[in-house]
Amino acid sequence: MAEVLVYVDHVDGAVRKPTLELLTLARRIGEPVAVHLGAGADAAAQTLAEHGAVKVLAADAPEFADYLVAPKVDALQAAYEAVSPAAVLLPSNAEGKEIAARLAVRVGSGLITDAVDLEAGDEGPVATQSVFAASYTTKSRVIKGTPVITVKPNSAAPEAAPAAGTVEQLAVTVGETSKGTKVVSRTPRESTGRPELTEAAIVVSGGRGVNGAENFPLIEALADSLGGAVGASRAAVDAGWYPHSSQVGQTGKSVSPQLYIAAGISGAIQHRAGMQTSKTIVAINKDEEAPIFELVDYGVVGDLFEVVPQLTEEIKSRKG
Amino acid sequence: MSLRIVVTVKYVPDATGDRHFAEDLTVDRDDVDGLLSELDEYAVEQALQIKEEADDAEVTVLTVGPEDATDALRKALSMGADKAVHVEDDDLHGTDALGTSLVLAKALEHIGYDLVVSGMASTDGGMGVVPAMLAERLGVPQVTLLSELKVEDGKVTGRRDGDAASEQLEAALPAVVSVTDQSGEARYPSFKGIMAAKKKPVETLDLSDLGIEADEVGLDGAWTKVEEAAERPARTAGTIVKDEGNGGKQLAEFLAGQKFI
Ligand SMILES: Cc1cc2nc3c(=O)[nH]c(=O)nc-3n(C[C@H](O)[C@H](O)[C@H](O)COP(=O)(O)OP(=O)(O)OC[C@H]3O[C@@H](n4cnc5c(N)ncnc54)[C@H](O)[C@@H]3O)c2cc1C
Ligand SMILES: Nc1ncnc2c1ncn2[C@@H]1O[C@H](COP(=O)(O)O)[C@@H](O)[C@H]1O
């Protein structure tokens, strides 16, 4: 059976959930071969094997951390040449897309980004995408070269499918031109202890209606009562109430949770672009004309300072 | 020697308009008003700021797009760019990211550059991949998704705020950078700027000027194919209640019914 390369997104060997989703999708097309760059391959291999990786190609070199993106492209290209895969899948985050872009140019292949589903087709994998702020759904195919496809988080439920997951060292030579952009320093983001925004099953977002950083704990308390992540509209981020890394929308994160709760958010097209594919959408807004209500499964017209605390209390008491 | 800055800008259908696909499943660019992609305004702004800091610099704006894309170039010129280059050719219709990056790369080599400044993503296709592709094709450093940048002594430095960490980056020129919407609001064109823009040079190039064959680009040369495009069914109207003192409880009841609690 044809092999499918899956680029592993991990933190020191702790595999992130979107990679497990990629393995699940890869099995629809062929046999997943994982590519693990950096430290922790042996720890990762176990998880990767449980989710269907027949093989784990591993490489570790200081260049992966010392220079931006390009050395990882060199490594993925080496894996590509070693395997001659039927497709290459990467997670749709900033780095995944840039690696994919450069690999596609190098090997002369077409590129599809931000797929939300993937299936096998007679003429190669067919990717589903959600475009124009999710007002259209398209099905596309790569028609030249080996399909390189990036897939958004929450596009599939990870399935267990035990496979060998044998670790093999991948020989990588990092070219001189790949050392052009030095990473001079790196400040890791502080963990909030909440689920990762793009991976969370539940997201609670606050907008301009939250009216100040000092009121965001209201949104956080609701998110915590549901075990969810916290998001924010650009208006709230621009006002400095919440970090940009939590922004949902066209220029922030694109989320697709089971449940999205928008509090004090009007529902501008650029915000919708990042949340419209959520399964269930709920809004709390004091303006009954707010466009967000066009999207909701359930909406409460009211003051979030009344509704949100009452909701949080009720959830807590129901959960006991 | 003068610092040659080239900003890549895209002409896109207005995101607040009713965007559609044309019959050949390319983006319909006729029915919706077009404009300079808002995210590329940030790129123009940063280029202008770099020029203002430099002793001697020149800002060229470059677009690949249909005739109307001149509007995007005029907007950038009225903000303060010095000159514009428009790559326009009927055979470009339907070009995908691989093709666009090929044309832009050839055009950049034709124009000559020390620094290429791009937006973080176009507001229509929104792939956010063209800058990385340009760096790959041109064989120069990629310094992308910057929320802050500085050009000094033949070097570009900047901050990239990623998912896991915030990184400080550095590369020697020539380089390709892209900037995010966190890099600082773009200026509005002044009346003087708008008048001046009318007299600024716009050079038009076609594929033969760049030595590109028609079958390398366009719908026929594309590396990808959209096979189906369906309008997403409107979400079925949900329940909307007015809060009369127990809105939070009603919402909890709904969430419990959906098994979220
Ligand atoms: C190129 C570009 C990219 C963009 N990218 C993004 C993006 O990624 N993400 C994003 O979110 N936006 C983005 N925007 C901005 C977007 O257009 C909107 O301006 C933004 O989403 C508005 O945020 P908001 O809904 O919080 O604020 P507003 O539109 O001001 O809405 C606030 C809402 O809160 C309600 N409200 C106020 N007080 C209360 C209360 N006490 N109780 C209940 N409700 C209350 C109001 O009725 C109103 O509906 C982008 C814009 C551009 C041009
Ligand atoms: N047709 C085009 N003409 C000029 N620049 C473009 C074009 N397409 C993309 N770009 C540049 O590449 C960036 C990223 O675009 P994209 O990869 O399409 O999301 C944009 O912000 C522009 O700076």
Automatic annotation (TrEMBL), chain A:
Key word Electron transport present: yes
Function as written in the Swiss-Prot or TrEMBL entry: The electron transfer flavoprotein serves as a specific electron acceptor for other dehydrogenases. It transfers the electrons to the main respiratory chain via ETF-ubiquinone oxidoreductase (ETF dehydrogenase).
Self-association and partners: Heterodimer of an alpha and a beta subunit.
A Pfam short name: ETF_alpha
Protein name: Electron transfer flavoprotein subunit alpha
Keywords for this protein: Electron transport, FAD, Flavoprotein, Transport
Alphabetized GO MF terms: electron transfer activity; flavin adenine dinucleotide binding
Domain Electron transfer flavoprotein alpha/beta-subunit N-terminal: 4-183
UniProt-listed GO biological process terms: fatty acid beta-oxidation using acyl-CoA dehydrogenase
Protein origin, superkingdom: Bacteria
Cofactor binding annotation: Binds 1 FAD per dimer.
Positions annotated to bind FAD: 208, 233-234, 247-251, 264-271, 285
Xref: PANTHER family: ELECTRON TRANSFER FLAVOPROTEIN ALPHA (PTHR43153), ELECTRON TRANSFER FLAVOPROTEIN SUBUNIT ALPHA, MITOCHONDRIAL (PTHR43153:SF1)
Gene3D superfamilies in alphabetical order: HUPs, TPP-binding domain
Keyword ATP-binding applies: no
InterPro entries in alphabetical order: DHS-like_NAD/FAD-binding_dom, ETF_a/b_N, ETF_a/FixB, ETF_alpha_N, ETF_asu_C, ETF_asu_C_CS, Rossmann-like_a/b/a_fold
Cofactor dependency: FAD
Family assignment from sequence similarity: Belongs to the ETF alpha-subunit/FixB family.
TrEMBL record, chain B:
Role of this protein: The electron transfer flavoprotein serves as a specific electron acceptor for other dehydrogenases. It transfers the electrons to the main respiratory chain via ETF-ubiquinone oxidoreductase (ETF dehydrogenase).
InterPro entries xref list: ETF_a/b_N, ETF_b, ETF_beta_N, Rossmann-like_a/b/a_fold
UniProt-listed SUPFAM superfamilies: Adenine nucleotide alpha hydrolases-like
Keywords, in A-Z order: Electron transport, Transport
Record's subunit section: Heterodimer of an alpha and a beta subunit.
Protein family per UniProt: Belongs to the ETF beta-subunit/FixA family.
Cofactors required: AMP; FAD
Species of origin: Streptomyces caatingaensis
Annotated coiled-coil segments of the chain: none
Protein name: Electron transfer flavoprotein subunit beta
Domain named Electron transfer flavoprotein alpha/beta-subunit N-terminal: residues: 24-214
MF GO annotations: electron transfer activity
Bilayer-crossing regions: none
